[in-house]
Amino acid sequence: MIGCRCAVCRSEDPRDRRTRPSILLEIGGDRASPLARAASFVLVDTSTDLRAQALAYGVERVDAILFTHSHADHIMGLDEVRRYNGLQRESIPCFGDERTLADLRRTFAYIFDPPPVAAGGIPQLSLFRIGGPFSLGGLEFVPVPIMHGTRPVLGFRVGAFAYLTDCSAIPDASWALLRGVRTLVIDALRDRPHPTHFTVADAIDASARIGAARTHLTHICHDLPHAATCARLPRGVELAYDGLRLEIA
Ligand SMILES: [Zn+2]
Ligand SMILES: [Zn+2]
Ligand SMILES: [Zn+2]
């Protein structure tokens, strides 16, 4: 946190250096065989820190972007994806719910409503409204409606993996969509209650109800030192950290 001198903000542990929440899914591909089909890369949210994240983790491709919601920490890196337009020479499809797409059009009016004579340097994006499960890279993506305070937002499920960032409640109908999830990434801002985010205890409860074998807590604030917090979490539950890689069957 800017201007904070707490133990976590001054920590030497790289896992305590947290940028904004986002994940990249690598689907398919076969690195062992140069003839095999290339992998598809699906980015979830375009965080304020997208450029730094892409440089730090060597992200060379983005084939599609999914948006959970339109809060600033999840969209403000969108302009940076024009580099991928340049590399890939095609428009990038972006998926979100109706409110998120409307907010993107308004927030990034220079992208979606550009002046007639564009000066260049504008991302080339196609917006698609999520109305139900959809297919990307040959896999089915299931949008999972969750509550973020009073605002409905989306989590996503792919196979036995689910990503539920920015969540303070899971509606009754969404539990069924999470049945069978083995690897879960879920919001756990801190221990103290917050109106729009799960606490660590809330996230542990949700993980147990879903029955996930592995759970990684995300959207963590500086109340939670990485090592000390992990030491008190139940078996199978850990804090996520920047650069964490998970193999998902
Ligand atoms: Zn701090
Ligand atoms: Zn949010
Ligand atoms: Zn957020």
Write the layout of secondary structure elements.
Elements: E1 23-27, E2 40-44, H1 50-57, E3 64-66, H2 72-75, H3 82-88, E4 92-96, H4 98-107, H5 109-112, E5 125-129, E6 134-136, E7 139-148, E8 151-158, E9 161-164, H6 172-177, E10 183-187, H7 200-210, E11 214-218, H8 226-232, E12 237-239
Parallel strand pairs: 2-3, 3-4, 4-5, 9-10, 10-11, 11-12
Antiparallel strand pairs: 1-2, 6-7, 7-8, 8-9
One zinc ion is lined by residues 1, 4, 6, 8-9, 222.
Descriptive notes:
The chain has helices at 50-57, 72-75, 82-88, 98-107, 109-112, 172-177, 200-210, 226-232, and strands at residues 23-27, 40-44, 64-66, 92-96, 125-129, 134-136, 139-148, 151-158, 161-164, 183-187, 214-218, 237-239. Strand 10, helix 7 (200-210) and strand 11 form a beta-alpha-beta unit. With 249 residues, the chain is an alpha/beta fold. It is built from eight helices and twelve strands. The strands form two sheets. A seven-stranded mixed beta sheet has the order 6-7-8-9-10-11-12. The chain has a five-stranded mixed beta sheet with strand order 1-2-3-4-5. The chain starts with 22 loop residues before the first strand and ends in a 10-residue tail after the last strand. The chain is globular and about 55 Å long.
